[in-house]
Amino acid sequence: MDIADLSARILACERRALARAITLVESQRADHRDLANALLETLAKANRQALRIGLSGTPGVGKSTFIESFGLMLTAQGLKVAVLAVDPSSARTGGSILGDKTRMDLLARDPNAFIRPSPSQTHLGGVARRTREAVALCEAAGYDVVLVETVGVGQSETMVAEICDLFALLLAPAGGDELQGVKRGIMEMADLILVNKADGDFKPAAARTCSDYAGALRLMRKRPQDPQGFPKAMMVSALTRDGLKDAWAQMQTLTDWRRDNGFWTSRRADQARFWFDQELRHALLARLDDPAIQAQITDLSQQVSNNTITPAAAASTILARLDHS
Fold it and tell me: What is the pLDDT of residue 179?
């Protein structure tokens, strides 16, 4: 693979080259990892940045419908939009449906949009292992906005906040009360809470839900990276597209304030340090894949099961071996 040629094509925003590059960075083969690292190093010199927006919410809340309506609104304004949709993988078979492009058929046909579904595999936190690198590739390709759709998360799965500049939490009408709103975890990460399906018979329920969460947000400790009035709760309808322009205006307001006050740069620096730590942890765990070490792990595991050695002592044995390897 010619890395120089591939990087040039990505910088020229060739969709096929971008898709090929994402496949490369998602590969687990050692030779592919070396090529992927070389590609990312080359593209980093271009220093292109996009607005990274993470979008999370429970399954069925309408994330894909919202992203299509929101993405079409942005492309109509002349912006280039990339969508990285993370699909849950089966715990039994390891397979994923990857059907997000089917749900976003209008956006998928838009020449200013790029949609890439990826399996979550065994990675926790609502995103795939290499989502961060896929975001970097989309930025290098010249996309203005990168939307990262999570698998549909619970209270504690907040890894997407370590990838994006803005984190929007999508909720359904009547999805909880004010007590649900003050729960920590994902609520503390959200910059915007968007109550979707605020149309038709659901509109009154959406208004109550929005009011409950707005009240809950006022009880949370103010974060230094937020201007007055943020985080906030808003009503939107992906079906009728009501509220989408207002939501985008609020995202731009928050982004501009963070840029002007230095929080944009510091946040990205913090994220870079976080992912360095993650890569280091994964690299250390990868050393356990050695066949000889795996054999010893299997033997020690059996001894732990038979109560002939404690779990702590068994772990220390493996760590001691790694120290001398």
Answer: 43
